[in-house]
DNA sequence: CTGTATTCATTCGCTTGTGAAGCAAATTAC
DNA sequence: GTAATTTGCTTCACAAGCGAATGAATACAG
């Protein structure tokens, strides 16, 4: 196996740095255009594909823990973007649904993301963008698998 | 120009999700092994290459704003990892230096990152890892350039 | 020179996330 | 059928980052 190159050792360093910078920009951009932040945008995006899912599943989907989701959905319910409905047979479960306003906001956000993401990938080839997406989806999985065999 | 593929539109969504998950893991991992969090690890990493730099430059380097750096350096000074020294001719400026303990902690962190990053890139080829690093260094730059011509 | 603008760092008030603990509903074990 | 565990969500206390405002020191314009 090849020796890790110095730059590779700083992968997470660059990842973390890029995230704080990009997240600020994304929040600003979304806030200017659609009046919400990136966490709420994540919820809208996820619910667009999984409307009516439970709160825990939502947390899993957007990478936040349960207390964070509770707060996030409180604010979004307050803002009229989503509503909690009872989960049917299971009395503990609550499902989250987009309201009409939520669906319409989601369309705005899709457009914002389209522009923003296009800007992010300037200077990258399609192959490189694919590699980035592969990393972003694979790495969290890799970690959870390797937790045990430290 | 090619039409953006649906998956590409969610680039930032995946980026944000991956970051929260990875950051939690990284904090846990670093905390277990070296007793510090990822923000402090970033400072140690950056200072390893730019020991004695000013607080603003440090913030730029690790992607945090000035108030965040002030707090971070307060905690690290408290912990004996860094010290503030006066910036010479310019009476406003303060420089940050690693203490002996800081240098030694930095070595630990280097090793932690080596292991952690190796884990992150499992399943990726070297070419793909390179693409990820290119993205992480390029995207923040791209944004700041494009701020004006919204 | 002197007044204005700029820069570097800090303080302040607030938001959002975290882990730990708690509660109620459902499931499993015996 | 009851006790013990697990699951889904919420509450709580706290950590850390953000923007805005502030305080000091320097630079610049006339």
Note the gap between the termini of chain A.
19 Å
Mean pLDDT of chain A: 89
State Rg of chain A: 18 Å
Shape, per Cα inertia axes of chain A: globular
Tally of separate domains of chain A = 1
Tell me what you see in this structure.
2 copies of one chain form a homodimer. Chain A has about 150 residues and is mostly helical. The first copy, chain A, has one domain: Arc Repressor Mutant, subunit A, CATH 1.10.10. Chain A is built from 7 helices and 2 strands; from the N terminus they run αααααββαα. Chain A has a two-stranded antiparallel sheet with strand order 1-2. The radius of gyration of chain A is 18 Å and the shape is globular. The two termini of chain A are about 20 Å apart. The mean pLDDT of chain A is about 90. At the A-B interface, α1, α2, α3, α6 and α7 of A face α1, α2, α5 and α6 of B. Chain A binds a DNA duplex (30 and 30 nucleotides) through α2 and α5.
